[in-house]
UniProtKB/TrEMBL annotation:
Metallo-beta-lactamase domain residues: 63-223
Keywords assigned by UniProt, alphabetized: Acetylation, Dioxygenase, Iron, Metal-binding, Mitochondrion, Oxidoreductase, Transit peptide
Documented EC number(s): 1.13.11.18
Family the entry assigns: Belongs to the metallo-beta-lactamase superfamily. Glyoxalase II family.
Keyword Metal-binding in record: yes
Protein name as catalogued: Persulfide dioxygenase ETHE1, mitochondrial
Amino acid sequence: MASAGRRALAGLWRSVSSAKRCRTELRPSPFLLHCRGLCNATGETRQDSSGLVFRQLFDQTSFTYTYVLGDRESGECVLIDPVIEMVDRDTRVISELGLRLTYALNTHVHADHVTGTGELKKRAGVKSVIARVSKAVADVHVDEGDTVKFGRFELEVRSTPGHTDGCLTFVLRDHGKAFTGDALLIRGCGRTDFQQGDPGRLYDSVHGKILSLADDTQLYPAHDYTGQTVTTVAEEKKFNPRLTKPKAEFVQLMNELNLPYPRLIDKAVPANLVCGLQDLMK
């Protein structure tokens, strides 16, 4: 009888051990988790009780996030930081959501991709928007304190220079969201070594115009390279390894990065200065 009991316990132990091994073997790899993050970024549509429609889209070549913000009641929407190669996708998504694009916004003159605003302007009723100080071609030039309206909603324009001199952050205050471009990334920030970049100005911009928002404000960057999709003011004030440093240390760190220039900078910047309408460059 004792022998039978021991055999039963041994069998049970083998079953438990096998289950543990299966759980270990099926644990997703870091790469799989990264890919899941990218997939989630391109597939989620949110609509809250106010009728705000929100979609985050992703370009895997330039690691750029593009954002659709729409008003369900009026059907009007805006697009933030479109990429030229993804214009067909963007317009298809907007159509499928039953929305009508009125403004295509750029957070700054990008150096790593050509903006899609030039192509989008060929659609009737679409106007391009960029910072006045950028000196780039656009239908609408905006400054600190301006607003961009779509239906019943509006984005507040905040000037956040430092990565470039014309960087903007768009704040959807009543819904606790801000679109930070390259000024503030998730656990990072944009580089400051070209296009009139200045680490001291960037530090002041981020702390004065972005991290001064409510702690629970969701922050959506123009890029991410690790599969993350969103952060908050509270998280960045606590965990951002660069911007939690004193200003002098931050400036020194940024000045010593010695990063290679973006691969497409010689094509992207001239094109983006003319709203992505490359025929104007000829």
